[in-house]
């Protein structure tokens, strides 16, 4: 679905310095996961999950999945991955984009969906922290419900900065590795963004054309969108336009993840704290979020002009 790029990118210039000079309290205990429900046999990669407290007043904690590089974890880059939304779970990238597993796309029969290894995972050459951010995304939570409501571009960026300070304090072995911030849509010496939203008035109205040009949607769907939306893909001009755009956004794999993540065996395996999150959904659209950074173009320009390496891709 439609997601937006992370405003954290504006914090990159001072981030490494902050990581080196800050020594906050340690993060919560982590869990080493050796088996996942629906995956045949032990995991062929090192997986760690855990929580890091980012706000004392509300008791907000961010949940993460760390997959260690399968090549040389002592030297390979460390990548923080932020999934868009806002409020989409980092698990989306873990299982559907750049991570080490993927769902078997078989008809759902009421049982537990099956997982298989993804041989094209980016963890072949980098350690990746898949983060549930902002608070209330995925398994991230706050003891005070206000901690989930009062969230926006700037506040979520500061929470991610606190997460990194604490996480690297607990994982000092990675401090000398190259560090990157990455993500997709509304998602270190360098950074990368996939399908990023830079400014809505430019981005959203070209998604259908881009999807068709890359062969992601068929000629029939493209022609239906052109016919019913009349060139306006932001303000759905009629119900037929809304329905065809929903067809463009849907995938069956996301449907399977709902059943897998809401199974108690899965939550036990991942070390999810009982009682913190009720129903897991990939993207929590219903909660309030402040879009207080209308355009990220000035920040991209600032970073690239200062010599930071950037990769923007579709």
From TrEMBL:
InterPro entries the UniProt entry points to:
AB_hydrolase_fold, Peptidase_S10
Q: Which UniProt keywords apply?
A: Signal
Give one GO molecular function term: acyltransferase activity, transferring groups other than amino-acyl groups
Signal peptide as annotated in the record: 1-27
GO biological process: any one?
proteolysis
Please report which protein family the annotation says this sequence is part of. Answer: Belongs to the peptidase S10 family.
Q: What is this protein called?
A: Serine carboxypeptidase-like 19
Q: Which organism is it from?
A: Aegilops tauschii subsp. strangulata
Native organism taxonomy: Eukaryota, Viridiplantae, Streptophyta, Embryophyta, Tracheophyta
């Amino acid at each position: 679905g439609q997601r937006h790029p992370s405003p954290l990118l504006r914090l990159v210039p001072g981030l490494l310095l902050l990581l080196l000079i800050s020594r906050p309290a340690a993060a919560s205990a982590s869990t080493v996961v050796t088996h996942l429900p629906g995956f045949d046999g032990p995991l062929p990669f090192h997986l760690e999950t855990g929580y890091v407290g980012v706000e004392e007043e509300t008791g907000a904690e961010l949940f993460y999945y760390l997959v260690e590089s399968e090549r040389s974890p002592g030297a390979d880059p460390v990548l923080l991955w932020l999934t868009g939304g806002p409020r989409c779970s980092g698990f989306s990238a873990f299982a559907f984009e750049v991570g080490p597993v993927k769902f078997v796309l078989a008809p759902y029969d009421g049982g537990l969906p099956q997982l298989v290894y993804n041989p094209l995972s980016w963890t072949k050459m980098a350690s990746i922290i898949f983060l549930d951010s902002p608070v209330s995304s995925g398994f991230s939570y706050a003891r005070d419900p206000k901690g989930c409501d009062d969230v926006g571009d700037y506040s979520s960026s500061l929470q991610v900065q606190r997460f990194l300070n604490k996480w690297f304090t607990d994982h000092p072995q990675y401090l000398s590795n190259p560090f990157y911030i990455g993500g997709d849509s509304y998602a270190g010496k360098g950074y990368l963004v996939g399908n990023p939203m830079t400014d809505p008035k430019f981005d959203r109205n070209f998604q259908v054309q881009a999807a068709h040009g890359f062969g992601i949607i068929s000629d029939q769907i493209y022609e239906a969108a052109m016919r019913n939306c009349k060139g306006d893909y932001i303000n759905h001009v009629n119900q037929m336009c809304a329905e065809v755009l929903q067809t463009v956004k849907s995938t069956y794999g996301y449907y399977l993840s709902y059943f897998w993540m809401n199974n108690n065996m899965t939550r036990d395996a991942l070390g999810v704290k009982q009682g913190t999150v009720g129903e897991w959904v990939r993207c929590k659209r219903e909660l309030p979020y402040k879009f207080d950074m209308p355009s990220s173009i000035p920040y991209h320009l600032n970073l690239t002009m200062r010599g930071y390496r950037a990769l923007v891709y579709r």
